[in-house]
Write a structure and sequence with these properties.
six-stranded mixed β-sheet; alpha/beta; binds zinc ion; Aminopeptidase; 14 helices; binds ligand BES; Leucine Aminopeptidase, subunit E, domain 1; binds manganese (II) ion; nine-stranded mixed β-sheet
Length: 500
């Protein structure tokens, strides 16, 4: 979809549809919608007085212009109560509108910067939200469907502003929105891709493509180098599979210093069968998405490379399968992580924290000043928070607050979980330094406490996205399947860190 900002009068635009807004409870029409209503001989005000259009959030009404306007259709998109409007609601309304128009076979549309200069939304923020909503909302994963789609795609979206002087601001919002949405859709594609395609090698190949396209530095460590570095925890997980593990490292250098300001670490288990501690077969297919954290950090660093903040960022993705092959890790085994700590394996299904232990070890060895890890880590987090928010854990409240704020801005909700010392008790082993599961209760927290041991005193936040990486149903721009969470949070975070 081509999305372009233009200056002009939306009522004069020739397109398959022009989209204007209505707030709930608004008595009098003014501005663009009033002019359009006049041109349509009062059709909109009549629909309003008859109660068919109420302006409720996500209410989308199509009115045909029958030649009274250059555009074929006028769409009235409800924004809900004016004082409750947020950027995220704009994303949602755009998603609903675009999907409906696409179903109707519309291939070109125009809209205003919805919500601009209302309820704390800037012109740039509105253009960004419109763009994100459109691109995220029409996303679908059809790579393996040989039958053609029932409808075509929207090819062009114009964002029309009446004030010529604000065109550069509209364009800026439009560009940022596109970068963020495309990165999110890239992560969605990777997560939706089945595990026979999305192997560790395929992830590494994708990293190579992204590195070339966006000018990132790439290194992929092979098993041998992992052995040299002493990554016993990651190698332990990888040993049950025929697919060789890949330790993927991408660098974005936006500042003159040589320091790594931020390390983004993402769990890259391309399929999690549980290993010898095998999972029940029901819904095991979902475990093709166990690399969602890795996909998110790869997509995020690609977006960062396009937005070019003055900061250095490293993405680290330990990628492996977790399978019960004949050389697989066994319960009772003891592994030595890169930082020298020994780990007693109680469940081979608690593999995420093992590969993260070595990824954090690597990030710390390289001197990363701050680490954020993202992982589909525990079913317990999904039970606790559902698919509405990701869980945040960490050792530095300031950084946790920044991550949560970055998430709010993105419409990717995050809830902080407790990290009381008392939980550490559950991870104590009698035969090694630590064991890899902490029992039945508080599973998301004990998993985070495990990782904390490897983060040490580096400021660190862990995001558990086990509940949020997939959506069982469509909700506005959050389509069914992979959500691409928390790509936009990570990018927002890095942009805000770069500003300080
Ligand atoms: N990848 C899973 C966690 C998961 C579960 C993600 C459901 C998404 C949806 C993780 O590797 C895992 O298996 N965790 C175990 C930990 C347990 C053995 C302590 C779990 O949550 O059951
Ligand atoms: Mn597992
Ligand atoms: Zn897993």
């Amino acid at each position: 979809m081509e999305i372009r900002a233009v200056a002009g009068d939306i009522t004069k635009i020739k397109a398959g549809a022009i989209v204007v807004n209505l707030f709930e409870g608004m008595e009098r029409l003014d501005g663009d919608i009033a002019n359009i209503d006049k041109a349509l001989d009062g059709a909109i005000s009549q629909l309003i007085s008859q109660g068919e259009i109420k302006g409720k959030l996500n209410e989308v009404t199509i009115v045909h212009s029958l030649g009274k306007l250059p555009a074929t259709r006028v769409v009235v998109a409800g924004l809900g109560k004016q004082q409750e409007l947020t950027q995220d609601r704009v994303r949602g309304v755009m998603a609903e509108t675009c999907r409906l128009l696409q179903q109707k076979g519309v291939d070109s549309m125009a809209t205003i910067a919805q919500g601009a200069e209302i309820a704390n939304i800037t012109v740039e923020g509105a253009a960004q939200a419109v763009t994100e909503g459109a691109l995220l909302g029409v996303y679908s994963f059809r790579r393996h469907i040989t039958k053609e789609a029932e409808h075509g795609e929207i090819k062009q979206l114009l964002i029309v502003g009446s004030d010529e002087t604000k065109l550069p601001i509209l364009e800026q919002g439009c560009y940022k929105g596109r970068v963020l949405a495309e990165a999110t859709n890239l992560a969605r594609d990777m997560v939706n891709e089945p595990a026979n395609y999305m192997t560790p090698k395929h992830m590494a190949d994708m990293a190579a493509k992204l590195a070339e396209t966006y000018g990132l530095e790439l290194s992929v460590l092979e098993r041998e180098q992992m052995q040299e570095l002493g990554m016993g925890a990651l190698l332990g997980v990888a040993q049950g599979s025929r697919q060789p593990p890949k330790f993927i490292v991408l660098h974005y250098r936006g500042s003159d210093s040589t320091e790594i300001d931020v390390a983004l670490v993402g769990k890259g288990v391309t399929f999690d069968s549980g290993g010898i501690s095998i999972k029940p077969s029901e819904k095991m297919d979902e475990m093709k998405g166990d690399m969602a954290g890795g996909a998110a950090v790869m997509a995020a660093i690609s977006a960062i490379a396009q937005l070019k903040p003055k900061i250095n960022v490293m993405a680290v993705i330990p990628a492996t399968e977790n399978l019960p092959g004949d050389s697989a890790l066994k319960p009772g085994d003891i592994l030595t992580a890169m930082n020298g700590k020994t780990i007693e394996i109680i469940s081979t299904d608690a593999e995420g924290r093992l590969i993260l232990a070595d990824a954090l070890g690597y990030a710390k060895k390289l001197g990363a000043k701050l680490v954020v890890d993202v992982a589909t880590l525990t079913g317990a987090c999904r039970i606790a928070l559902g698919d509405v928010c990701s869980g945040a854990f960490g050792n530095n409240q300031e950084l946790i607050d920044k991550v949560i704020a970055a998430g709010t801005e993105a419409g990717e909700l995050i809830w902080q979980m407790p990290m009381y010392e008392e939980y550490k008790e559950q991870n104590k082993s009698e035969v090694a330094d630590i064991k890899n599961i902490g029992g039945k209760y508080g599973g998301a927290i004990t998993a985070a406490q495990f990782i904390a041991e490897f983060a040490g005193d580096t400021p660190w936040v862990h995001l558990d996205i086990a509940g949020t990486s997939l959506s069982e149903k469509e909700r506005t721009y959050r389509v069914k399947g992979a959500t691409g969470v928390p790509v936009r949070t990570l990018v927002n975070l890095v942009l805000s860190l770069a500003k300080q």
